[in-house]
Amino acid sequence: RLGGFPHYMQKEIFEQPQVFYNTLQAVRESPDALDLLRGRDRLTIVACGSSYHAGLLYKYLLEMYCGVAVLVEQGSEFKYYPPPLSGTVIGISQSGETADTLAALKMAQSRGCKTVAVTNVVGSTITRMTDATIHLRAGPEMSVAATKSFIAQLAAGLGITDALTDGSHAEENTRINVRIEEILTIPITEAVGLCSSASSLFYIGRGLFYPAALEGALKMKEISYIHAEGYAAGELKHGPFALLSGETPVIAIAIPGAAYPVMLSNIKEIKARGAPVIAIGLAGDIELAELADIFIELPKAPESTAVATVSVLLQRLAYETADSLGRDIDKPRNLAKSVTVE
Ligand code: M6R
Q1: Residue among 78, 92, 98 to mutate when testing ligand 1 (max atoms within 8 A of CB)
Q2: What is the pLDDT of residues 158-192, one digit of tens each?
Q3: Among the residues of 91-147, which ranges form H helices?
Q4: Among this protein's residues, is 79 annotated catalytic?
Q5: Distance between CA 260 and CA 256 in Å, rounded?
Q6: At 195, is the pLDDT very low, low, confident or very high (cuts 50, 70, 90)?
Q7: Are the C-beta atoms of residues 287 and 314 closer than 8 Å to each other?
Protein backbone atom coordinates (compact mmCIF):
# COMPACT_ATOMS: atom_id res chain seq x y z
CA ARG A 1 0.00 0.00 0.00
CA LEU A 2 2.78 2.40 0.90
CA GLY A 3 5.36 0.86 -1.44
CA GLY A 4 8.00 0.69 1.29
CA PHE A 5 7.49 4.26 2.52
CA PRO A 6 6.78 4.67 6.26
CA HIS A 7 4.19 7.40 5.68
CA TYR A 8 1.92 8.60 2.90
CA MET A 9 3.49 12.03 3.18
CA GLN A 10 6.92 10.75 2.22
CA LYS A 11 5.46 8.62 -0.57
CA GLU A 12 3.64 11.67 -1.90
CA ILE A 13 6.77 13.82 -1.71
CA PHE A 14 8.60 11.20 -3.80
CA GLU A 15 5.82 11.13 -6.41
CA GLN A 16 6.34 14.80 -7.20
CA PRO A 17 8.66 14.58 -10.24
CA GLN A 18 6.00 12.57 -12.09
CA VAL A 19 3.19 14.75 -10.76
CA PHE A 20 4.88 17.90 -12.03
CA TYR A 21 5.09 16.39 -15.50
CA ASN A 22 1.44 15.22 -15.42
CA THR A 23 0.14 18.62 -14.37
CA LEU A 24 1.98 20.51 -17.11
CA GLN A 25 0.34 18.13 -19.57
CA ALA A 26 -3.06 18.70 -17.94
CA VAL A 27 -2.79 22.48 -18.38
CA ARG A 28 -2.01 22.08 -22.07
CA GLU A 29 -5.16 19.96 -22.35
CA SER A 30 -7.42 22.55 -20.69
CA PRO A 31 -8.21 25.01 -23.51
CA ASP A 32 -11.54 26.15 -22.00
CA ALA A 33 -9.89 27.23 -18.76
CA LEU A 34 -7.01 28.94 -20.58
CA ASP A 35 -9.47 30.83 -22.78
CA LEU A 36 -11.06 32.32 -19.66
CA LEU A 37 -7.64 33.49 -18.45
CA ARG A 38 -6.24 34.89 -21.70
CA GLY A 39 -6.45 38.58 -22.57
CA ARG A 40 -7.32 39.70 -19.01
CA ASP A 41 -5.35 42.52 -17.45
CA ARG A 42 -6.59 41.51 -14.00
CA LEU A 43 -7.35 38.17 -12.29
CA THR A 44 -8.63 37.29 -8.82
CA ILE A 45 -7.71 34.10 -6.97
CA VAL A 46 -9.49 32.58 -3.97
CA ALA A 47 -8.15 29.68 -1.89
CA CYS A 48 -7.27 28.51 1.63
CA GLY A 49 -4.18 27.11 3.38
CA SER A 50 -1.53 25.67 1.09
CA SER A 51 -3.74 26.39 -1.91
CA TYR A 52 -3.75 30.07 -0.88
CA HIS A 53 0.05 29.97 -0.85
CA ALA A 54 -0.06 28.52 -4.37
CA GLY A 55 -2.34 31.45 -5.27
CA LEU A 56 0.34 33.86 -4.00
CA LEU A 57 2.86 32.09 -6.24
CA TYR A 58 0.48 32.64 -9.19
CA LYS A 59 0.42 36.35 -8.32
CA TYR A 60 4.20 36.66 -8.56
CA LEU A 61 4.37 34.51 -11.71
CA LEU A 62 1.54 36.26 -13.56
CA GLU A 63 2.62 39.75 -12.54
CA MET A 64 6.33 39.18 -13.28
CA TYR A 65 6.03 37.28 -16.54
CA CYS A 66 2.58 38.13 -17.98
CA GLY A 67 1.94 41.69 -16.79
CA VAL A 68 -1.44 40.66 -15.33
CA ALA A 69 -2.46 42.26 -12.01
CA VAL A 70 -3.51 39.53 -9.58
CA LEU A 71 -5.49 39.83 -6.38
CA VAL A 72 -5.25 36.80 -4.06
CA GLU A 73 -7.85 36.43 -1.31
CA GLN A 74 -8.42 33.88 1.42
CA GLY A 75 -11.76 32.20 0.83
CA SER A 76 -12.86 32.82 4.41
CA GLU A 77 -12.46 36.61 4.07
CA PHE A 78 -13.67 36.97 0.51
CA LYS A 79 -17.26 35.91 1.04
CA TYR A 80 -17.92 38.48 3.75
CA TYR A 81 -15.64 41.28 2.50
CA PRO A 82 -15.52 40.88 -1.28
CA PRO A 83 -13.31 43.28 -3.26
CA PRO A 84 -14.69 45.08 -6.33
CA LEU A 85 -14.95 42.26 -8.86
CA SER A 86 -14.88 41.77 -12.61
CA GLY A 87 -13.46 39.31 -15.13
CA THR A 88 -12.34 35.83 -14.13
CA VAL A 89 -11.93 34.41 -10.63
CA ILE A 90 -9.76 31.31 -10.11
CA GLY A 91 -10.55 28.96 -7.21
CA ILE A 92 -7.65 26.73 -6.17
CA SER A 93 -8.56 23.70 -4.05
CA GLN A 94 -6.91 20.29 -3.85
CA SER A 95 -10.09 18.62 -2.61
CA GLY A 96 -12.54 20.79 -4.49
CA GLU A 97 -14.69 20.71 -1.34
CA THR A 98 -13.32 23.47 0.91
CA ALA A 99 -16.40 25.36 2.07
CA ASP A 100 -14.75 28.80 2.25
CA THR A 101 -13.38 28.55 -1.28
CA LEU A 102 -16.71 27.33 -2.67
CA ALA A 103 -18.58 30.14 -0.90
CA ALA A 104 -16.14 32.71 -2.31
CA LEU A 105 -16.63 31.38 -5.84
CA LYS A 106 -20.41 31.49 -5.44
CA MET A 107 -20.13 35.12 -4.35
CA ALA A 108 -17.97 35.90 -7.41
CA GLN A 109 -20.54 34.27 -9.68
CA SER A 110 -23.33 36.29 -8.12
CA ARG A 111 -21.33 39.40 -9.15
CA GLY A 112 -21.19 38.22 -12.77
CA CYS A 113 -17.65 36.80 -12.81
CA LYS A 114 -16.53 33.79 -14.81
CA THR A 115 -14.89 31.13 -12.63
CA VAL A 116 -12.09 28.60 -13.20
CA ALA A 117 -11.29 25.72 -10.84
CA VAL A 118 -7.80 24.34 -10.26
CA THR A 119 -8.37 21.08 -8.42
CA ASN A 120 -7.10 17.56 -7.92
CA VAL A 121 -10.42 15.77 -7.56
CA VAL A 122 -12.40 14.90 -10.67
CA GLY A 123 -16.14 15.42 -10.12
CA SER A 124 -15.65 17.44 -6.91
CA THR A 125 -18.11 20.22 -6.06
CA ILE A 126 -15.81 22.94 -7.39
CA THR A 127 -15.72 21.30 -10.83
CA ARG A 128 -19.52 21.22 -10.98
CA MET A 129 -20.02 24.87 -10.10
CA THR A 130 -17.31 26.61 -12.18
CA ASP A 131 -17.20 27.47 -15.89
CA ALA A 132 -14.01 25.48 -16.57
CA THR A 133 -11.52 23.29 -14.72
CA ILE A 134 -7.83 22.46 -14.72
CA HIS A 135 -7.46 18.98 -13.21
CA LEU A 136 -4.11 18.68 -11.46
CA ARG A 137 -3.69 14.92 -12.02
CA ALA A 138 -1.58 14.51 -8.88
CA GLY A 139 -3.44 11.31 -7.91
CA PRO A 140 -5.20 10.84 -4.55
CA GLU A 141 -3.43 12.66 -1.70
CA MET A 142 -3.85 10.68 1.53
CA SER A 143 -1.68 12.60 3.98
CA VAL A 144 -3.42 15.56 5.64
CA ALA A 145 -0.43 17.76 4.75
CA ALA A 146 -0.60 18.95 1.16
CA THR A 147 2.61 18.12 -0.70
CA LYS A 148 2.16 16.75 -4.19
CA SER A 149 -1.03 18.76 -4.66
CA PHE A 150 0.88 21.96 -3.80
CA ILE A 151 3.61 21.12 -6.31
CA ALA A 152 0.91 20.31 -8.87
CA GLN A 153 -0.72 23.69 -8.17
CA LEU A 154 2.65 25.34 -8.75
CA ALA A 155 3.10 23.34 -11.97
CA ALA A 156 -0.34 24.54 -13.10
CA GLY A 157 0.71 28.13 -12.34
CA LEU A 158 3.86 27.70 -14.41
CA GLY A 159 1.82 26.04 -17.17
CA ILE A 160 -0.67 28.94 -17.19
CA THR A 161 2.24 31.42 -17.27
CA ASP A 162 3.65 29.55 -20.24
CA ALA A 163 0.29 29.55 -22.05
CA LEU A 164 -0.19 33.30 -21.46
CA THR A 165 3.30 34.06 -22.80
CA ASP A 166 3.03 31.91 -25.94
CA GLY A 167 5.30 29.14 -24.79
CA SER A 168 8.17 31.22 -23.40
CA HIS A 169 8.50 28.97 -20.33
CA ALA A 170 7.95 25.63 -22.04
CA GLU A 171 11.55 24.51 -22.26
CA GLU A 172 12.43 25.50 -18.71
CA ASN A 173 9.23 23.94 -17.31
CA THR A 174 9.97 20.54 -18.84
CA ARG A 175 13.27 20.36 -16.94
CA ILE A 176 11.75 20.99 -13.50
CA ASN A 177 10.77 17.38 -12.78
CA VAL A 178 14.41 16.30 -13.14
CA ARG A 179 15.46 19.07 -10.75
CA ILE A 180 12.83 17.95 -8.20
CA GLU A 181 14.19 14.39 -8.43
CA GLU A 182 17.61 15.70 -7.35
CA ILE A 183 16.16 17.30 -4.22
CA LEU A 184 14.70 14.06 -2.89
CA THR A 185 18.10 12.78 -1.73
CA ILE A 186 20.02 15.93 -0.72
CA PRO A 187 21.31 15.41 2.85
CA ILE A 188 19.56 17.68 5.39
CA THR A 189 20.34 15.88 8.66
CA GLU A 190 22.09 18.86 10.28
CA ALA A 191 19.18 21.20 9.49
CA VAL A 192 16.68 18.65 10.79
CA GLY A 193 18.67 18.39 14.04
CA LEU A 194 18.61 22.17 14.54
CA CYS A 195 14.88 22.45 13.74
CA SER A 196 13.79 19.56 15.95
CA SER A 197 15.44 21.09 19.01
CA ALA A 198 13.89 24.55 18.42
CA SER A 199 10.61 25.74 19.89
CA SER A 200 10.19 28.48 17.30
CA LEU A 201 11.33 28.91 13.68
CA PHE A 202 11.21 31.72 11.13
CA TYR A 203 11.15 31.23 7.37
CA ILE A 204 12.03 34.16 5.15
CA GLY A 205 12.14 34.82 1.41
CA ARG A 206 11.34 37.51 -1.14
CA GLY A 207 9.38 37.44 -4.38
CA LEU A 208 8.38 33.87 -5.31
CA PHE A 209 10.25 32.68 -2.24
CA TYR A 210 7.97 34.58 0.11
CA PRO A 211 4.96 32.28 -0.54
CA ALA A 212 7.44 29.37 -0.49
CA ALA A 213 8.49 30.53 3.00
CA LEU A 214 4.84 30.76 4.13
CA GLU A 215 4.19 27.24 2.85
CA GLY A 216 7.38 25.85 4.44
CA ALA A 217 6.34 27.29 7.81
CA LEU A 218 2.76 25.98 7.49
CA LYS A 219 4.05 22.48 6.74
CA MET A 220 6.43 22.58 9.69
CA LYS A 221 3.80 23.67 12.24
CA GLU A 222 1.13 21.36 10.85
CA ILE A 223 3.06 18.12 11.23
CA SER A 224 5.87 18.80 13.74
CA TYR A 225 3.84 21.09 16.08
CA ILE A 226 6.84 23.45 16.25
CA HIS A 227 5.82 27.10 16.10
CA ALA A 228 6.93 28.41 12.70
CA GLU A 229 6.26 31.68 10.92
CA GLY A 230 6.85 32.66 7.33
CA TYR A 231 7.73 36.27 6.54
CA ALA A 232 8.65 38.42 3.59
CA ALA A 233 12.32 38.89 4.48
CA GLY A 234 12.08 42.68 4.66
CA GLU A 235 9.34 42.52 7.30
CA LEU A 236 11.37 40.75 9.96
CA LYS A 237 12.89 44.01 11.15
CA HIS A 238 9.42 45.51 11.68
CA GLY A 239 8.73 43.64 14.90
CA PRO A 240 9.77 39.98 14.77
CA PHE A 241 13.42 40.95 15.34
CA ALA A 242 12.45 41.28 19.00
CA LEU A 243 12.01 37.50 19.11
CA LEU A 244 15.38 36.59 17.60
CA SER A 245 17.92 34.79 19.78
CA GLY A 246 20.16 31.75 19.67
CA GLU A 247 17.00 29.66 20.23
CA THR A 248 15.15 30.80 17.10
CA PRO A 249 16.69 29.38 13.92
CA VAL A 250 15.86 31.29 10.73
CA ILE A 251 15.47 29.46 7.44
CA ALA A 252 16.51 31.96 4.78
CA ILE A 253 15.84 31.33 1.10
CA ALA A 254 18.44 33.26 -0.91
CA ILE A 255 18.24 32.45 -4.61
CA PRO A 256 19.92 34.85 -7.06
CA GLY A 257 17.42 37.34 -8.51
CA ALA A 258 16.34 40.95 -8.09
CA ALA A 259 16.25 40.75 -4.27
CA TYR A 260 19.37 38.65 -3.75
CA PRO A 261 21.75 41.40 -2.49
CA VAL A 262 19.20 42.64 0.03
CA MET A 263 18.57 39.04 1.19
CA LEU A 264 22.27 38.77 2.04
CA SER A 265 22.00 42.00 4.07
CA ASN A 266 18.94 40.59 5.87
CA ILE A 267 20.87 37.44 6.76
CA LYS A 268 23.72 39.54 8.19
CA GLU A 269 21.22 41.50 10.32
CA ILE A 270 19.76 38.23 11.63
CA LYS A 271 23.20 36.83 12.42
CA ALA A 272 24.05 40.04 14.30
CA ARG A 273 21.06 39.33 16.57
CA GLY A 274 22.38 35.88 17.42
CA ALA A 275 19.92 33.67 15.54
CA PRO A 276 21.32 30.62 13.73
CA VAL A 277 20.68 30.72 9.97
CA ILE A 278 19.89 27.77 7.75
CA ALA A 279 20.42 29.22 4.27
CA ILE A 280 18.95 27.64 1.17
CA GLY A 281 20.75 28.76 -1.95
CA LEU A 282 22.26 27.62 -5.20
CA ALA A 283 25.32 25.39 -5.58
CA GLY A 284 28.61 27.26 -5.55
CA ASP A 285 27.34 30.31 -3.62
CA ILE A 286 30.43 30.81 -1.47
CA GLU A 287 29.30 34.11 0.05
CA LEU A 288 26.04 32.59 1.29
CA ALA A 289 27.81 29.45 2.53
CA GLU A 290 30.17 31.59 4.60
CA LEU A 291 27.35 33.63 6.14
CA ALA A 292 25.16 30.66 7.06
CA ASP A 293 25.44 28.30 10.00
CA ILE A 294 24.04 25.56 7.79
CA PHE A 295 24.01 25.88 4.01
CA ILE A 296 21.78 23.70 1.88
CA GLU A 297 22.75 23.95 -1.77
CA LEU A 298 20.30 23.30 -4.56
CA PRO A 299 21.12 22.72 -8.23
CA LYS A 300 21.69 25.93 -10.20
CA ALA A 301 18.41 27.04 -11.82
CA PRO A 302 16.38 30.14 -12.64
CA GLU A 303 13.97 31.45 -9.97
CA SER A 304 10.84 29.86 -11.46
CA THR A 305 12.53 26.43 -11.28
CA ALA A 306 14.15 27.05 -7.92
CA VAL A 307 10.78 27.81 -6.34
CA ALA A 308 9.82 24.18 -7.04
CA THR A 309 13.04 22.73 -5.66
CA VAL A 310 12.95 24.98 -2.58
CA SER A 311 9.34 23.96 -1.89
CA VAL A 312 10.19 20.26 -2.05
CA LEU A 313 13.21 20.78 0.18
CA LEU A 314 11.04 22.54 2.78
CA GLN A 315 8.51 19.69 2.65
CA ARG A 316 11.34 17.29 3.43
CA LEU A 317 12.59 19.50 6.26
CA ALA A 318 9.13 19.46 7.85
CA TYR A 319 8.66 15.74 7.25
CA GLU A 320 12.04 14.67 8.61
CA THR A 321 11.76 16.99 11.61
CA ALA A 322 8.30 15.64 12.46
CA ASP A 323 9.54 12.08 11.97
CA SER A 324 12.50 12.63 14.29
CA LEU A 325 10.03 13.89 16.92
CA GLY A 326 7.81 10.81 16.48
CA ARG A 327 4.73 12.78 15.35
CA ASP A 328 1.62 11.25 13.80
CA ILE A 329 2.66 12.57 10.41
CA ASP A 330 -0.22 11.57 8.14
CA LYS A 331 -2.90 12.49 10.66
CA PRO A 332 -1.73 15.51 12.65
CA ARG A 333 -3.75 16.37 15.72
CA ASN A 334 -6.85 18.57 15.37
CA LEU A 335 -6.78 18.57 11.54
CA ALA A 336 -8.89 17.04 8.76
CA LYS A 337 -7.92 16.56 5.14
CA SER A 338 -10.69 18.73 3.86
CA VAL A 339 -12.52 21.47 5.71
CA THR A 340 -16.14 21.38 4.63
CA VAL A 341 -17.58 23.89 7.09
CA GLU A 342 -17.14 27.65 6.97
O1 M6R B 1 -8.51 21.07 -0.40
P2 M6R B 1 -8.02 22.47 -0.31
O3 M6R B 1 -6.80 22.72 -1.17
O4 M6R B 1 -9.07 23.50 -0.59
O5 M6R B 1 -7.56 22.64 1.18
C6 M6R B 1 -7.14 23.89 1.68
C7 M6R B 1 -6.44 23.73 3.00
O8 M6R B 1 -7.31 23.21 3.97
C9 M6R B 1 -5.19 22.83 2.90
O10 M6R B 1 -4.31 23.30 1.90
C11 M6R B 1 -4.43 22.77 4.22
O12 M6R B 1 -3.88 24.02 4.51
C13 M6R B 1 -3.36 21.69 4.16
N14 M6R B 1 -3.62 20.66 5.14
C15 M6R B 1 -1.97 22.18 4.36
O16 M6R B 1 -1.04 21.16 4.29
Answers
A1: 98
A2: 999 999 999 899 999 999 999 999 999 999 999 99
A3: 99-110, 125-129
A4: no
A5: 5
A6: very high
A7: no
